[in-house]
Specification:
The protein has 3 helices and 8 strands. The protein has 143 residues and is of the alpha+beta class. The N terminus is likely disordered.
């Protein structure tokens, strides 16, 4: 039978400091936001890089290691309408990231532009990572 632990049975009078311990445990993600760190997964079996996956796309393994990204990449394509400013970015480590571009008008962003991570995740785990333009896309060569 599945047994779950409830707060009613384990709470005591001295256990009022437990919420502060839980907020202290949440401090490292806030520090990661301040340092603009983005973490991704790398498959232990085949070495394929991924972002927030439950299994590897290449081999199907569920064994991952967590690595820190350098935080830079190239815009690959737009996702959705212009006002949303949502793009797919191919990160330098080999994984793709769906994110919002900030700090520039949506029309200034184009495929091939270099971006860097501003905020790896939204507060409370909602929303997409934010990136900003570092170098505009190279001009298209005409025939």
């Amino acid at each position: 039978m599945l047994q779950t632990d409830t707060r009613e049975h384990t709470e005591t009078a001295d256990d009022h400091e437990a919420p502060t311990v839980a907020t202290d445990a949440a401090a490292p993600p806030d520090e990661a936001v301040a340092r603009r760190e983005l973490f991704f997964q790398r498959c232990l079996w085949c070495g394929t890089a991924a972002y927030r996956r439950s299994f590897c796309r290449a081999c199907g393994s569920t064994a991952f290691t967590r690595e820190r990204s350098e935080g830079s990449g190239v815009v690959v394509r737009r996702n959705g309408h212009v006002p949303l400013n949502t793009w797919f970015v191919a990160m330098d480590e080999g994984f793709h990231l769906l994110c919002h571009v900030t700090g520039s008008a949506p029309v200034a962003v184009s495929v091939g532009a270099r971006v860097s991570v501003v905020r790896p995740f939204a507060p409370h785990g909602q929303g997409l990572p934010l990136v900003e333009l570092t170098h505009p896309a190279p001009p298209l060569e005409r025939w």
